[in-house]
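Case study 2.
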Amino acid sequence: MVDMNKILDEAIKRDASDVHLICTNKPILRISRELVTLEDMDVLTEEDMTDIYDFLVRGNVDSDEVYKETRRLDTSYEYKGIRLRVNISLSDNIPLCTLRLIKNELPTYESLGVPDIVRRMTYQPQGLMLVTGKTNSGKTTTLNALINDINEKQNKKILTLENPIEYKHHSKKSLIVQKEVGKGKDILTFSDGVKNSLREDCDILVIGEIRDKITMEAAIEMAESGHLVIRNFAY
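Prediction:
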């Protein structure tokens, strides 16, 4: 039987950014952009992948339904105080899992080397900001460092819509509310969350992703009605 605790302990020990669990392969870590096989572990079988799925989904009926309906699942898992972003999909009708380890400590905004004009833009009373970049380019880290900077320095109400929630923020100078989007979560869809935010008296709305025209139109309406909207955008 696969030992998920041993795999995750090794990932933490080696400061891995991701864990790849794929049938007929040994567990693989991504460390400093390199793929590193855990040679002392067994090759993962179809039965192992089913066990890993059960380990990560934890009997959540809503998550299980989403996976069976869409053939994919984005969720989160916490292990020894470290949050994991979990993606489960299918290959040859067998689950495969990719886990992203989220560091507990956010870097300061200043340490990221992003021009200060970006931070100053968050003082605008309204508008639309896009945090863009390729996969693994640091978009999520930059976005959350920016949220943390606002949280520490400005007196605002910040509402985030995410799937899943990666960094957990706590209210400081600002009031911050984080909502997870999805079936069985805090709000069903991103478009529902954006529309409802107009009634929640928030100053800044952070949208994890925009997948459809309705959500985009609602976000633009939000920006035009006297709010600052920040969106994470991959290309």
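The two ends are 39 Å apart (CA to CA).
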